[in-house]
Specification:
This protein is an alpha/beta fold. The chain is built from 10 helices and 7 strands.
């Protein structure tokens, strides 16, 4: 069984290699995880960023599974944190909204991604977009910093999701919120089917049940949890029929089970601890 540290090393190595590739190469390599699949649907996780203001093609490596910045209700002057910021795609979209008065902080585990994001920011001449090397389970950011947190298909790769969402809660200001896109599982997928799906779309690796995912968010202290978007990931029949009976296949197709991309919104409504006589009012 792989330890948390081993899993993080795999993520760093994989995404370090991805940082050296183009978006076109990543789109044809298992959601960026270069596993040499032969039956990849190149559009399986694709979302069109091109319509969003602030989109920078060089920062889009095609690794997301949603458009969290579109749903994040970011305002001019906000401080935004992007967890797993990659080459800076969501960070630059967020910067177009917060403007000169705001700030965007991207955090990523992979040095090559940080280097690529900083290079992109330099080319754009942006002084209020910062990229920090760090672990989402132990963010290099002070508490009560952000108005908004965004993340795109990254939390599923974090071994300790409880700690990751606790850290998200910590760095948000009172009344702040997040919008996070990720991959989840619905229903009891047969193990061989799940393994095959992971080979078909690498972003499935690390995904947990949707109810469990939402419960982790709730237990971290967040309230007003809303599913902003939910989309079933299409798997080809040649994979499904290998592992599902006719009855299971019908249930799968009708939405009873499957792999979904979701975008979740939640708010930091109140501190879990008080530091003074007025802080819980």
């Amino acid at each position: 069984m792989k330890t948390s540290e081993h899993l993080k090393e795999i993520v760093k190595e994989t995404y370090g290699n991805i940082a050296d590739q183009s978006r076109e190469q990543n789109a044809s390599s298992c959601c960026g995880a270069t596993c040499g699949c032969s039956t990849i649907d190149e559009a399986i996780m694709a979302e069109d960023y091109g319509k969003l203001e602030g989109y920078v093609k060089d920062a889009d490596l095609g690794l997301g599974c949603g458009l969290p910045t579109e749903f994040a209700q970011i305002k001019e002057g906000d401080v935004v944190i992007d967890l797993g910021s990659g080459a800076g795609n969501d960070a630059f979209v967020a910067r177009s909204v917060v403007g000169e008065k705001g700030k965007v902080i991207g955090v990523d585990l992979t040095e090559k991604m940080i280097d690529k994001a900083r290079e992109n920011a330099k080319k754009l001449g942006l002084s209020n977009v910062e990229f920090r090397l760090g672990d989402i389970e132990n963010l290099p950011i002070a508490g009560n910093t952000a108005d908004v947190v965004v993340s795109n298909c990254v939390m599923n790769l974090v071994p300790d999701k409880v700690k990751a969402f606790e850290e998200t809660y910590r760095v948000l200001k009172q009344g702040g919120h997040f919008s996070i896109s990720d991959i989840v599982i619905v229903g009891d997928l047969p193990h061989p089917l799940r393994e095959s799906a992971e080979m078909y779309a690498g972003c499935v690796a690390g995904a947990i049940q949707k109810d469990e995912y939402l419960d982790v968010i709730r237990k971290a202290g967040f309230g007003n949890i809303v599913l902003q978007k939910e989309k079933k990931i299409s798997l080809p029949d040649e994979i499904l029929t290998n592992y599902l009976s006719e009855k299971e296949l019908q249930e799968y197709r009708e939405g009873g089970m499957g792999i979904f991309s979701i975008t979740v919104y939640a708010e930091k409504q109140s501190d879990k601890t008080c530091c003074g006589p007025d802080c819980c009012n």
